[in-house]
Specification:
- This protein has ten helices and eight strands.
- By secondary structure, it is α+β, with helices and mostly antiparallel strands.
- The protein is globular.
- It starts with 7 loop residues before the first helix and ends with a helix.
Length: about 240
Amino acid sequence: MDNSSGVGVLDKAVLVLNALEAGPASLAQLVTATGLARPTAHRLAVALEHHRIVHRDTQGRFILGPRLAELAVAAGEDRLLAIAQPVLTQLRDLTGESAQLYRRQGDVRVCVAAAERSSGLRDTVPVGTALPMTAGSAAQILLAWEDPDRLHRGLRGAKFTAAGLASVRRRGWAQSVGEREAGVGSVSAPVRGNGGRVIGAISVSGPLERLSRSPGRVHAGPVTSAAERVSEAMRRGSQS
């Protein structure tokens, strides 16, 4: 199927954006992903950066820029958030713990939706909070299915290992015991979009005195089920 619009420069710019949808990319990685000539890929990425459609992370890699998020908010069409919010509420009610949805943005993960436990000791992560990609079960999920080069770069300074991420891929969920914050545990599972690509992580988190030193033993089932429901709804929406 020919995806050309007939406007060559626009089609090439979309190739760049499609490549960055998978995560941060150097210029060399953009060239490989898009098939564009290096000068063309660079010229387009820099032009998109000028309009804030593309941005750069702390390592100088190209990432999707803030203008895209602004346009999504303005259009009110962020399907993932709309689908996930009621699922997070159900997950909170089922587990009795705070539930969150995280997305990766460059070198951090951002809480984009949450359902907080209403009372008692809790782990509060306000929407908009940026957390490191080096600790926590959601970081493990968002990194575990990256390509090998990005995965190993992401392990620098991380509190988890390549072997740990291999276990995450095998079982389909991750747990954290005091990685991000002492006394806090969490369990996360992947939300997948088209082609099975991981586009987010659903989590529950709370104090270890409730979650124990093995939080996945209790919460892996409901967290994985919640993530699968969101993933299925995202797939159905893309086919309609």
